[in-house]
Design brief:
Strand order of the largest sheet: 24-30-25-27-26-31
Largest sheet: 6 strands, mixed, barrel
CATH class of one domain: Alpha Beta
CATH topology of one domain: Dimethylsulfoxide Reductase, domain 2
């Protein structure tokens, strides 16, 4: 989140898209309700009418996979109705920048597309520069080559009529939503966007999120109280896990994982990955301090701080590619901690088959899972499986101590309530003991390949690791005297400091501030004494943008920060996301977006498939693209043929989407009898009109088929789903919860046996939320 949960209460309008927050984050609805009590309209954009829709003031039922068409319509509406924040745009974004004169967009493709390679040459996706090398600008935003004018032309096609034709949202409903949310572009108003995996689980998932950023920058809704782009994480520590390098392309603190071809040496990594300006110019300090934390005394300037020990990526290391490598026997072993890919992965038939090609598999979980039991799945002959499986019992969150980081980046400490039952152990115990035993096995080895393990700096104690020592290392310390650094501004690139995660540095200087519990009864809900938010306890990112260029707040009633000339300081209700003594008129004093080299919010930003979000149809779609002749994202990686069975609308005419339930989340909940009683069976949700066409009644067992496989589910016939009117055609949809599997008290077919093995062009996250299928009565 750029903001945080409590801050939602400050919003004047709330746009929820790609999330069923009332179902998946019910406690968070408290803050949405507080905003509604103040008169803030809630707009819910979702294919289904859900518990969130019931709470919302406006429900926009859009066809799965058409988010950019909807967002593009909002962008056009804000511009055409002159509801944008021009002062904010001119001062804080790259809207005034003049784009390369040969940059163009023609019929679904940006300039530079190579049909042979399926990739873009981004040479024209740049800015015109003056003699000083800085971008040429037009503060009036009228120059035809300015980013703003390019943006305006790009979204001119996204008319209310086009939005209705592509998404299925009635024109009148769209205009009602546009009017309500775009009104937050007025000075002193704030609108927030809440999203989750309904936004990201698409072949254009990254561009879906980018479209949110474009709209919020146009309206001046970034950096202010009640604004922002706020990702709703699936549970308490999803944010924390990504902060610590769970993403396949990241190291802790979102430092890029080195790639063998591009970064063979430390010098080459730092040169290519460190920008000349912006806060990322400090990357060498963060990176070298991380290497020092990992290899300690062995990490010295003379050996590039053990950079050679760090594994380098080669090829595609994404989730989808990992399973392709398993099936091809290129990957021989797998450790699964707190995951259940045999239920949650795409095209499960192939993923379960891939697990059977491993030599060994380790699964740590609270209960037996489908991943640990893949060899006993329906239709599988256990005698044909050679994989050796180790199922290790894990402890619950009540049985271990440590920090969790919520969606709002707040680090909070949890205490152990009781000891784990039986042989169950925490994940920290497992990792600690695994490393200690590996180090003992390598003792005496003279082979260079064993040095990364032998030289690993590992001092967390025996058996159960000391979480306080871990926390102190995460914060960072001076190597010689082991004193804690105050925060990441003290980190050095000379090996004198060690830090396990630079973004969290500052949470444990003199005391563990994750344990702090001081609430604020008044103010804007920042609660600076409750836990610790990275970075540097800032509750709202980019908060320089909460004030006008001269330092006065946009909204005097909801002050985040303001410039105090007498004190020569920024003061207010938050920690400045920049130097606190940097005057508004000083060089860089008007650059809120400090992680970008130019300090400006990027309306124009080169992702792999384009600098502006553009609507493309999902990988499987029942209709042609109405906005261009380019049917699907041209940069999507088509995986090996066995994985990539493409469904045809003549055979599979129904659009399907998957979703979560409040009552279930993987194997754990399917072992809890009271939750099983509430949601006992796998079901398929369908509208009454589709059910009548198929001769299906509520409670009937049905078969659902896609190009990848088929499943059985109980029919839930409801008014919550309606067919879409798409360019004069009627398109039916169904909804499938994805939690079920073949182990546990409640068993059922997994919806992901149907989903395609294809991912977003930038992240490779699978397209779970829009694919084609058919439904038949009977099992």
């Amino acid at each position: 989140m750029t903001n945080h949960w409590i801050d939602i209460a400050n919003s004047d309008a709330i746009l929820i898209i790609g999330s069923n927050v009332a179902e998946t984050h019910p406690i968070a609805c408290k803050w949405i309700g507080k905003a509604q009590d103040r008169g803030a309209p809630v707009i819910h954009v979702d294919p289904r009418f859900t518990r969130t829709s019931a709470k919302a003031d406006i429900h926009c039922a859009l066809r799965p996979g058409t988010d950019i068409a909807f967002m593009g319509g909002l962008i056009r509406y804000a511009i055409e109705q002159n509801l944008i924040s021009r002062e904010y745009l001119a001062a804080y974004t790259n809207a005034p920048y003049l784009v390369h004169p040969k940059f163009a967009f023609t019929d679904g493709l940006f300039s530079g597309f190579n049909q042979a390679t399926g990739r873009y040459d981004q040479a024209t996706w740049t800015f015109q520069a003056g003699p000083d090398g800085q971008p040429l600008t037009d503060p009036t935003l009228q120059h035809p080559q300015s980013v703003f004018q390019h943006l305006k032309r790009h979204y001119a096609r996204y008319t209310p009529e086009m939005v209705a034709a592509v998404t299925g949202i009635p024109k009148e409903t769209f205009l009602k939503a546009a009017k309500a949310f775009c009104a937050t572009g007025a000075p002193g108003k704030a609108g927030t966007i809440l999203y989750a995996m309904g936004t990201t689980h698409h072949t254009v998932g990254s561009q879906n999120v980018r479209s949110h950023a474009v709209l919020q920058l146009l309206l001046g809704n970034i950096g202010i109280a009640g604004g922002g782009i706020n990702a709703l994480r699936g549970h308490a520590n999803v944010q924390g896990s990504t902060d610590f390098g769970l993403l396949y392309g990241s190291l802790p603190g979102y430092l890029a994982l080195p790639r063998q071809q591009d970064h063979p040496t430390l010098a080459s990594y730092l040169e290519k990955e460190t920008p000349k300006a912006g806060f990322w110019a400090n990357k060498p300090k963060f990176f070298v301090s991380l290497l020092k934390a990992w290899w300690g005394d062995k990490a010295a300037r003379e050996n590039d701080f053990c950079y050679d020990y760090l594994p380098k990526a080669s090829g595609d290391c994404s989730y989808l590619a990992m399973f392709e490598a398993m099936l091809a026997r290129k990957l021989r072993g797998l450790i699964v901690i707190g995951q259940n890919p045999a239920v949650s992965g795409a095209n499960l038939g192939m993923e379960r088959k891939a697990l059977g090609q491993l030599d060994w598999l380790v699964v740590r979980d609270l209960f037996p899972t489908e991943t640990a039991s893949f060899w006993s799945a329906p239709g599988v002959d256990p005698a044909a499986i050679k994989t050796e499986v180790f199922l290790l019992p894990a402890s619950t969150y009540l049985e271990k101590e440590g920090s969790v980081t919520n969606s709002g980046r707040w680090i909070q400490w949890r205490y152990r309530v009781t000891e784990p039952l039986g042989a169950a152990r925490s994940d920290g115990w497992f990792i600690n003991n695994l490393v200690l035993r590996l180090k003992r096995l390598y003792v005496g080895s003279l082979q260079p390949k064993d040095r990364p393990i032998l030289d690993l700096h590992w001092g967390y104690g025996e058996d159960r690791p000391d979480v306080d020592r871990i926390a102190r290392e995460v914060n960072g310390y001076y190597w010689v005297d082991r004193k804690q650094v105050r925060n990441f501004t003290a980190l050095k690139d000379d090996g004198s400091t060690a830090c396990g995660n630079w973004i969290m540095s500052g949470f444990y200087f003199e005391e563990n501030r994750a344990k702090s519990r001081k609430a604020e009864p008044e103010g804007i809900g920042a609660n600076l004494g409750w836990g610790y938010a990275w970075p540097l306890n800032r509750r709202i990112l980019y908060n320089r943008a909460s004030a006008r260029p001269n330092g006065d707040p946009w909204n005097p009633d909801r002050v985040v920060l303001r410039w105090d000339p007498a004190a020569a300081q920024w003061v207010g209700n938050d920690i400045p996301d920049f130097r606190a003594d940097l005057a508004p008129t000083a060089p860089g004093g008007g650059n809120p977006f400090i992680m970008r080299a130019d300090g400006k919010g990027a309306l124009f930003s080169p992702l792999v498939e384009g600098p502006f979000p553009e609507h493309y149809e999902p990988f499987e779609s029942p209709v042609r693209n109405l906005l261009s002749t380019v049917q699907r994202n041209p940069l999507v990686r088509l995986n090996p043929a066995d994985w990539n069975r493409l469904g045809d609308a003549t055979q599979f005419p129904i659009v399907a989407t998957t979703y979560r339930l409040a009552e279930h989340h993987h194997a754990t909940t399917r072992y809890l009898t009271w939750l099983v009683e509430m949601m006992p069976n796998m079901f398929v949700e369908m509208g009454r009109e589709l059910a009548e066409e198929k001769g299906i009644k509520n409670g009937d067992v049905c078969t659902i088929l896609s190009a990848r496989g088929q499943i059985r589910a109980v029919a839930c016939v409801t008014d919550r789903l309606k067919p879409f009117a798409i360019n004069g055609r009627k398109i039916h949809q169904i909804g499938l919860p994805w939690h079920w599997g073949f182990v546990g008290i409640s068993r059922g077919d997994s919806a992901n046996l149907l989903t395609p093995h294809v991912g977003d062009a930038n992240t490779q996250i699978p397209e779970f939320k829009a694919f084609l299928c058919d439904v038949r009565r009977g099992g």
